[in-house]
Amino acid sequence: MDYQFIKGEENEPIQNALFQNYHTNLTKYPDWQRYLRQHRPPVLIVGGKTTRY
C-alpha cells in the first residue's frame, strides 16, 4: 500500500536520495539512543493480533 503513496515522477528523486543516504542512519543510532534516554519523549506503541516483537 505504501508504494501507492511514493510512486510518481515527483517522488522518485526524493526516494532515491533517501535510499542512497540510508546507511548514514546507522552512525546516528548512538545519538538517537542518547537523546531518548535523556529526554524520554512520550511514545505510543501500537500492536495487533499478529504483531511480533
Question: What labels would you give this structure?
Answer:
mainly alpha, 3 helices, single chain, 53 residues, flat
Structure description:
The protein has helices at 2-6, 12-20, 24-39. It is mainly α and 53 residues long. The longest helix has 16 residues, at 24-39. The two termini are 22 Å apart.
**In whole angstroms, how far apart are the ends?**
22 Å
The secondary structure category is mainly alpha
Strand content: under 5%
Taking all Cα atoms into account, the compactness measure Rg is: 16 Å
Number of helices: 3
Give the overall shape. flat
Number of strands: 0
Topology order in helix (H) and strand (E) letters: HHH
Give unreliable regions as ranges.
none
How much helical structure, as a percent, in the residues?
A: 55-70%
Biggest sheet statistics? none
Summarize the structure.
The protein is mostly helical. It has helices at residues 2-6, 12-20, 24-39.
Helix/strand layout:
Blueprint: H1 2-6, H2 12-20, H3 24-39
